Amino acid sequence: xxxxxxxxxxxxxxxxxxxxxxxxxxxxxxxxxxxxxxxxxxxxxxxxxxxxxxxxxxxxxxxxxxxxxxxxxxxxxxxxxxxxxxxxxxxxxxxxxxxxxxxxxxxxxxxxxxxxxxxxxxxxxxxxxxxxxxxxxxxxxxxxxxxxxxxxxxxxxxxxxxxxxxxxxxxxxxxxxxxxxxxxxxxxxxxxxxxxxxxxxxxxxxxxxxxxxxxxxxxxxxxxxxxxxxxxxxxxxxxxxxxxxxxxxxxxxxxxxxxxxxxxxxxxxxxxxxxxxxxxxxxxx
Length: 285
Ligand code: FE
What we know:
Elements: E1 7-12, E2 14-18, E3 22-26, E4 39-47, E5 57-62, E6 65-73, E7 76-80, E8 85-88, E9 93-97, E10 102-108, E11 115-123, E12 134-138, E13 145-148, E14 151-157, E15 159-162, E16 165-168, E17 183-189, E18 193-198, E19 204-216, E20 219-222, E21 225-229, E22 234-239, E23 243-250, E24 258-260, E25 263-265, H1 268-280
Antiparallel strand pairs: 1-21, 2-3, 3-4, 4-11, 5-10, 6-9, 6-11, 7-8, 7-10, 9-12, 13-14, 14-17, 15-16, 17-23, 18-22, 19-20, 19-21, 19-22, 19-23, 24-25
The structure holds fe (iii) ion.
C-alpha cells in the first residue's frame, strides 16, 4: 500500500548573512525547533552583487556533523587543515564529514556574476561525532541526471528506483557510507509537470522550493520555503507554472542535539569540550 506524504510545516526562507557578509536565505535551522532530524540546517547562498559574497567564509571550525555543499552558479574554493583544496563548480558538490574536527575556509573564486549554491548541515550519530574528518569532492559529471516523468532530475545522494530506471548518486552507501542514508535530489519542473518519487517510509523528508510554486497533495507552496513532509512512502509534486526544488530524506537519529554555532554534539559537556579544544588549538587532533 502506498501512502503519499503531505506538507506538515512550511518554513519560509529568511534573508540573512553568514561568514564574512555572504548573503543567504536560511530555512531549516533558522531557529531552535526548525530542525528536521537528521537535518540541522539548510542555507541557500544567493547573491548577484560581489559585495554580498566576496568576503566568503574565512577559516572556521566544525565538529560533530557533515556539511554538504551544492553549487548551481559561480565557484568556491575549499581549503582545510588536512591540506585538501577543492574547487566547487556549477553542478558540482562537496561532502565533508567534520567528525572530531575540521578547520576550513570556503571562498568565492570570482569578483562578478551570481553566486548561487546550497549548504546542508547533516547530523552524525553520537557514535560517529568524534570520527576522523573526511572530505570528498564531487565533480558535476559524477552526478547522474535524467528526465523522469517530464522533470529534470539530478541525484546527488541516495538511490532512486522507478519503473524502467534506476539511479544511484555519488553518495550512495557503497563507496562513502553515511549512517543517515541520505537522499538528495535536484528537481526542475516545467509548467504542468507532475512527478512522483518513492521515499523510504520512516525517514524524515523535506523539500526546499527555491523557484516558482508547486502543490504537494493539493497543498500549495511558493518559493523560497522549506516544506517539511509527513511520513509515507512517496511524494508527488505538481507545478502549474514551473518550479525548482531540492528534495531531502534521511534516517532520523532520535538523539539529543546540543548546538553552539559550528559545533553540534549531544550534550552541553561535549560542547564545552569542543570550544575548549578549539581554543587550545587541538580541535582536529
Ligand atoms: Fe564551513
